Amino acid sequence: MSMADKAAVTTIKLVEMKQKGIKITALTAYDTPSARLLNEAGVDVVLVGDSVGMVKLGYESTIPVTMDEMLHHVKAAKRGNSRALLVADMPYLSYELDVKETLRNAGRLMKEGGAHAVKLEGGIETAPMIKELLKINIPVMGHLGLTPQAVNRLGGYKVQGRKPQEAEHMLTEAKILEGAGAFAVVLECVPPTLAREITRKLSIPTIGIGAGSHCDGQILVLDDMLGLSDGPELKFVKRYADLRRAALAAVAAYAREVRDGSFPAAEHEFADRINTLR
Ligand code: KIV
After folding, report:
1. Could you point out which of 5, 123, 124, 159 has its C-alpha 20 to 30 Å from the C-alpha of 93?
2. What is the 47 CA–ligand 1 centroid distance (Å)?
3. Is the shortest distance between the CB of 138 and ligand 1 below 6 Å?
4. Ligand 1 centroid – CA 31 distance (Å)
């Protein structure tokens, strides 16, 4: 990373990156060490996604995730964040019902959580909220395609925008989000041709997940790309490591050594007069 790249990432910088053809890197993080890791590796956007519900909290979908749970994780990620733009997901029912409630919830993610921006799922229906959030200086990232909070209406986790009318509708929605003032849009599980068209027609960046290589940036769930997740392998995820297997082997070795008495060994014991822990 050059000196110039060490400057904090802003929403404006992301738009400039699109203009210059520089790809945007984004990953999720839900705690301090992960956010620190992403910053050290120079990732541009750290998203505290409501995927935390499935990845860390054992829920079957993102729907049960509460504002308090999101805030807890946003605060933790904030403590590990230095350069990246920290974006917090607004959980299901925290932004759909009432303008004042939406502003208060988003405001908490910014003021108490330390996020730089929030992300909302949905199209046309979110445009009025995006405008209201901008009035109180809260930047918004949109999210189209497979929006997991809508899994029950969508009938499962499926690729979106395959039919020509659906594709046309998604393009219209993307333009509406841009018009409402969103600074970027996540495109999740969308055919690459549609993602390319949306990317070409918008002046704000598209961040793809399962949306092919033409988006202005890419995002993955950190635990998926590190091979820490134990769920089924998803087509759009590339596993850059196999940490679950390594962790399982380490924990099994520890249990074995405790049982057979080979851990702790002499080098792990405090000899006379040694008080320091290292
Ligand atoms: O919740 C999340 O992690 C997300 C990303 C996968 C885009 O919304």
Report:
1. 159
2. 7
3. no
4. 15
**DSSP assignment, residue 122?**
B
Q: Verify cis geometry, omega within 30 degrees of 0, for the bond prior to 264.
A: yes
Does position 99 have pLDDT exceeding 50, yes or no? yes
Which pair of structure tokens corresponds to residue 210?
Answer: 């399962």
Tokens for 75, please give them: 């605060």
Q: For residue 225, is pLDDT > 50?
A: yes
3 pLDDT higher than 50: no
* Range 107-124 average pLDDT: 98
How far is 244 from 250, CA to CA, in rounded Å? 10
CATH of 4-241, one of 3.20.20.60, 3.40.50.300, 3.30.450.40, 3.40.50.2300: 3.20.20.60
The whole-model pTM stands at 0.96
Backbone φ, ψ for residue 139 (5° rounding) = -70, 145
CA distance 35 to 240: 17
CA of residue 220 to ligand 1 center, whole Å: 7
The pLDDT tens digits of the residues spanning 38-80 come to: 999 999 999 999 999 999 999 999 999 999 999 999 999 999 9
Ligand 1 within 6 A of CB of 209: yes
Q: Is there a contact between 51 and 221 (Cβ–Cβ < 8 Å)? A: yes
Q: Is 216 in the pocket of ligand 1 (CB under 6 A)?
A: no
